[in-house]
Design a protein that fits this description.
Blueprint (H helix, E strand, L loop, with lengths): L9 H8 L6 E4 L6 H10 L4 E6 L2 H10 L7 E5 L5 H7 L5 E7 L4 H5 L25 H7 L2 H12 L4 H14 L5 H11 L11 H11 L2 H11 L4 E11 L2 H17 L2 E3 L9 H6 L7 E7 L2
Parallel strand pairs: 1-2, 1-4, 2-3, 4-5
Antiparallel strand pairs: 5-7, 6-7
Helix pairs in contact: 7-8, 7-10, 8-9, 11-12
The protein binds S-adenosylmethionine (SAM).
Length: 295
C-alpha cells in the first residue's frame, strides 16, 4: 500500500495552536503523522510531543517515519479518551496544546484489509485496533433488526435505515455478511440514489465505523478530561468531519466558556479554503474549533 495522508487545515492549526520551542503538546490522533511532524518541528528545541493513536499500525509507522526526533516524541497506542491518565503516566501535565483530528485516515481507508471502504473488496472489519472488540461483521451478525436500524439512523442519519436493517437480517439468515462489497451491493439495492448524496452505502458505512469504534463515547470522555490538562493559556484544537462530532464539540466548548475558566478562540467553526479543498478533497468536510484555558 502506497497511500499517503495529507493533514488538513495545517496553517490554521499552527496559527491557532501557537506551538513554541520548549512547549508540551499532544497529538491524540497520529494517523499518518502529518500534524505531529509539523508540531514537532515548531516545539524544538526542548519541546515534547505525546503522540497517541488506537491503531498499532499508525503508531508503528509514525515511530519509523519520525524517529529522527528522538526523545522529543513519545508514543502511546491508546484511545485518546485516556489522555489524562496517559499524560499523568508520562509526567507531562499540564500541556500547552492538544490536537485531535477525528475519524479514519486516508491510509486506513486505502487498505482493503481494514474494511473501511465500500469501493474495495475486503473483510467487513472497521476496527481501528484489530486486536480486540467486535468488527462491523460481528455487529451485523449479533444485533437485532431494530438495533441495526437505530445504529444506522443515529450514527449515519440514513433515512433508509429500517429498510437496510430488514434486508441485512433477511440476508444474514441465508449467508452472514462478511465483506465490504456484499454490504455495498445490499445498499445499492435498498437505498434510492439521491442527487449529490454520494454512494448509497456512504452513510451506513459511516454509522458502522462510529459504532464499531464507539467514536462518540471516546469523544465525550475526551471532552470531559482534555480541557483539565491544559496549562493556563494552553489550547485544545478539534477537527471533526460530521455534524454528530461537531455538535458535541460545539456544545462542550460553549458550556466550558459559560462555566468560566475557558474561552472559545473560534466563535465560528473554521473550514478549509477553496485552494486546500481543491488539493485535498478530504478537507471539504473538516471543521476546526479551538478552546483556550484562561490564564
Ligand atoms: C484523520 S486521522 C489523523 C491524521 C493525522 N492528523 C495526520 O496528520 O496524519 C485519524 C486517526 O485517529 C485515529 N483514531 C480515531 N479515533 C481514535 C481514538 N478514539 N483514540 C486514538 N486514536 C483514534 C485513527 O486510528 C486514525 O489513525
Amino acid at each position: 500500500m502506497d497511500a499517503t495522508h495529507v493533514p488538513v487545515l495545517p496553517l490554521e492549526l499552527l496559527e491557532l495552536l501557537r506551538p513554541r520551542p520548549g512547549a508540551r503538546f499532544v497529538d491524540g490522533t497520529l494517523g499518518g503523522g502529518g500534524h505531529a511532524r509539523m508540531l514537532l518541528e515548531q516545539i524544538q528545541p526542548d519541546g515534547i510531543l505525546l503522540g497517541i493513536d488506537r491503531d498499532p499500525e499508525a503508531v508503528e509507522r509514525v515511530s519509523r517515519n519520525l524517529s529522527g526526533h528522538g526523545s522529543a516524541l513519545r508514543l502511546r497506542c491508546a484511545d485518546f479518551a485516556e489522555v489524562k491518565s496517559l499524560l499523568v503516566e508520562e509526567k507531562l501535565v499540564p500541556v500547552d496544546g492538544i490536537v485531535v483530528d477525528l475519524g479514519m485516515s486516508s491510509l486506513q481507508l486505502a487498505d482493503p484489509e481494514r474494511g473501511f471502504a465500500f469501493s474495495m473488496e475486503g473483510p467487513l472489519d472497521m476496527r481501528y485496533d484489530r486486536s480486540h472488540g467486535s468488527s462491523a461483521a460481528d455487529l451485523l451478525g449479533q444485533l437485532s433488526e431494530s438495533e441495526i436500524a437505530d445504529l444506522i439512523w443515529r450514527y449515519g442519519e440514513e433515512r433508509a435505515s429500517r429498510r437496510l436493517a430488514r434486508r441485512i437480517v433477511q440476508q444474514r439468515r441465508a449467508d452472514p455478511l462478511r465483506t465490504t462489497s456484499a454490504l455495498a451491493r445490499l445498499a445499492e439495492r435498498v437505498v434510492p440514489r439521491r442527487r449529490h448524496a454520494g454512494h448509497p452505502a456512504t452513510r451506513m458505512f459511516q454509522a458502522l465505523r462510529i459504532a464499531v469504534n464507539r467514536e462518540l463515547e471516546s469523544l465525550e470522555r475526551f471532552l470531559e478530561d482534555a480541557p483539565t490538562t491544559l496549562a493556563p493559556g494552553g489550547r485544545l484544537a478539534i477537527i471533526s468531519f460530521h455534524s454528530l462530532e461537531d455538535r458535541l464539540v460545539k456544545t462542550c466548548f460553549r458550556n466550558l466558556e459559560n462555566d468560566g475558566g475557558h474561552v472559545r478562540i473560534t466563535r465560528k467553526v473554521i473550514k478549509a479554503g477553496d485552494r486546500e479543498v481543491e488539493q485535498n478533497p478530504r478537507a471539504r468536510s473538516a471543521r476546526l474549533r479551538v478552546l483556550e484555558r484562561a490564564a
